Amino acid sequence: MQFRISREPLTELTADGIIIFYFKNQRKLTGSAAEADRLLEHQISRLVAEGEVRGELAEVTILHTWGKLAAKRVIILGLGESEKLNMDRIRKAIAVAARKADSIGIKELAIGVTSDLRVNGNEVDLIQAFVEAVCIGLYRFAGYQKERAVYPKHLQALTIVVGEHISEEAAAVGLERGEVLSHAVNMARDWINEPANKFHPSRFAEVAVEVGKRRGIQVEVLEEEDLKRLGMGALLAVAQGSDQPAKMVVMRYQGAPESTEWLGYVGKGITFDTGGIQVKPDKGMGEMKGDMAGGAAVIAAMDAIGALRPHVNVLAVIPICENMISGSGYRPSDVIESFSGKTIEVGHTDAEGRLILADGVAYAKYLGATHLVDIATLTGSVISALGHVATGIMGNEETMIQEVKKAAELAGEKVWELPMFEEYEELLKSEIADIKNEGGSGAGAVQGAKFIQAFVGDTPWVHMDIAGTADCQKDDGLYCKGATGAGVRTLIVLAVRRGS
Ligand code: BES
Ligand code: ZN
Ligand code: ZN
Q: Is 280 one of the catalytic residues?
């Protein structure tokens, strides 16, 4: 996709389509919308009067201009109630319009940073949001059919019209941030959408190495011998039922060499989760190819961090393996020795994510992480609590929790905090080991977090359970069916804010 910044009025631009905004209950058309209406001999105001254009969020109405404007079409995009407008709603609406534009063969699209977009953020943020909306909105997984699909199908260029007061430099910053963030999100989505026979543990480790090379980030891949030597018993136990050897990827971005603080990102990298010997039901098991979405989010975020180069140190740790079924698989009741030294009784072989994360967070701490965020498709329970709308977050320190909430809000990702009362720890008590990985029914998402917390200790930490948000059941707003890249933008914004 090509991006251009222009100072020409929207109504004078040559393009296949220009987008103009219309709010719900808007009384009068203003600015370029009023000008387009005048040139189109009041077709827009008539459609408003007739109730066909209502301004509902993401409502798209397309008018052909037949030579009355330089652009071939005017796309009237509803933005909902003006009081409810925020960056997230702007992204949603523009993404829907961009998908529609692409589907009808529009190659060049133009849109303006107009004065009616009154939101919490400046013009640079708006330019960034436009780019994200178009790039994330138009993503689709290419797949493996003989005629390999290419996306977007038609749309090639977006012109963003800005006012006099926005400098070239400011506009360039917005464009760059938008492109870097969208690229990271879509890269994660590609990895997550890949089937597990293509995207196995070795391939996963390989993409981390590729990101490291591209961005000048140090990457180390621990192989099974290393994991044995280090005593990563929890990761190895989960991996032992698979023919694919486990890996642990470590990435180090040192943007603040004078600082001893290291922000540690730990992502669950289960490339397929059958449930193990306590096998999952047949229906929907294929979705478990996406059980590495947390790990993908971390590696993709490192790609963007390596491009934006914030003044902060970030350590990424991604434990990777498959959770398969075989004669060599681990069993419920097994006791395993984790990297931290704590012993774990296996209560359930399908609660494998927290096991590999136990070694992941303990290793990140050992390598010097002073602050931790882990991200994982960890529990079905978080879906019962929050559906597919918000990521569940849990933590052990208020400042860190607030920081993650703020980063998520700025990134346009929804998170909701769940309680971490100490009473929940009772559920994980084992009679024969230091802890067990599953404690029966109730508060499953919190149990998962409580288990990880046992390996985090007092280090400020936030856990992000993206089981509900990592994928989408149908095309909706910013996303299409399939992987969403949940958490990628939050992790990037968190690191960038820590470094400024
Ligand atoms: N990968 C799953 C969680 C999951 C469920 C992710 C649905 C995405 C969609 C995880 O490993 C799992 O199986 N969790 C179990 C834990 C239970 C056995 C304690 C769960 O949540 O049911
Ligand atoms: Zn599982
Ligand atoms: Zn899992």
A: yes
Q: Three-class SS of residue 372?
A: strand
Helices (H), 320-441: 353-366, 381-386, 398-411
Helical spans, DSSP H, in 10-112: 31-39, 43-49, 87-103
| Cβ partners under 8 Å of residue 402, min gap 6 | none
Q: Give the pLDDT confidence of 180-206 residue by residue, as tens digits.
A: 999 999 999 999 999 999 999 999 999
Q: What is the pTM of this model?
A: 0.97
Ligand 1 centroid to Cα of residue 163, in Å, is 49
Helix boundaries (H) for 309-433: 353-366, 381-386, 398-411
Ligand 1 contact via 467 beta carbon (within 6 Å): yes
CA of 288 from ligand 2 middle (Å) equals: 8
Give the orientation angle of helix 87-103 with respect to helix 123-137, to 10 degrees.
40
Bridge-based pairing of strands 335-337 and 269-273 is unpaired
Q: In the predicted model, is pLDDT for residue 60 greater than 80? A: yes
pLDDT, tens only, 377-406: 999 999 999 999 999 999 999 999 999 999
Distance CA 339, CA 362 (A): 7
- What is the DSSP pairing of strand 247-254 with strand 218-222? antiparallel
The CB of 444 under 6 Å from ligand 1? The reply is: yes
Report the candidate in 364, 323, 361 with the shortest Cα–Cα distance to residue 464.
361
Kindly tell me if the per-residue pLDDT of 267 is higher than 80: yes
pLDDT in tens, 454-481: 999 999 999 999 999 999 999 999 999 9
Which one of 350, 424, 446 would you pick to mutate in the ligand 1 pocket, going by the greatest count of ligand atoms within 8 A of its CB? 350
Q: Taking all residues of the chain, what is their mean pLDDT, rounded to a whole number?
A: 97
Instruction: Give yes or no: 354 in active site.
Output: yes
Packing angle of the helix pair 488-498, 168-193 (nearest 10 deg): 140
